[in-house]
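anyone seen this seq b4? input:
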Amino acid sequence: MNVLLNPNPTNLLEHAGIKTPLIGFYDVPDKEPFGPFVKPKRCFFSAYENWLNGESICISTEDPDYTATCQGGGYWVGNILPQWAVKNSNKEHPARENFAEGLNQREGFKYSDYLMCQWLDNLNPYFIKNKYVVIGPLKDAWYKHLKTITFYVNPDQLSFLIHGAEYRNASVEKNPVITSFGSGCGQIAALLGNLDSDTPKAIIGATDMAMREHLPPDILAFTVNKAMYKQLCELDENSFMNKHFWKRLRKVRKEGKDSD
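predicted toks r here
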């Protein structure tokens, strides 16, 4: 693929004031071009600082050296249930039901175990199509295998991106931006649904309490599919990013910093 055809986020990032690297979620047959790799400490997002420094993490359901370090992450990226849930399962009480009940009894996410089971029944995890999922900095040459792109942003920048996602939308019934309860790893892939859709889609993420300890307190995630990424990168000079409200907000923030 000619990498020059890939969307160019430079103008978008400059106008939004986003300096953190964009992080890609890739489904690839070969992990080697994405190194160096770091093995996260249980939660995938413990590698947040490593991502910012150019390193990646790798998850595989086939390669034992890259088994998910987080039990919840292994489910949401690869559909691998924890061994304790499988071990205690039977025909009347399947492993996924064990997983839902055990998780809810430990963490109290839902009013009842039944609701937790229903919630899992209504949401599919991400199934790895090639051998590896790699999460890390964008690699232009592998754009074909890119599934989602995540912006790690402060609330002002999140506002900018939501405006950008709505720039070409007129519907109030089909909102291009969603927010959904779920794990941080679920929010960067599975909870967006069909990642290969030509319909621009985005999700506000990093709302999972279990992963937030690994992020700065003022940072949220904005994850998009490739269709939305292209749309954001094509924001034109007539858009809000060159108009009064955004310019004024950036000026106020700058003046606030100068006065501290």
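Residues 3-65+129-244 form one domain. The chain has a mean pLDDT of 94. kinda curious what u guys think
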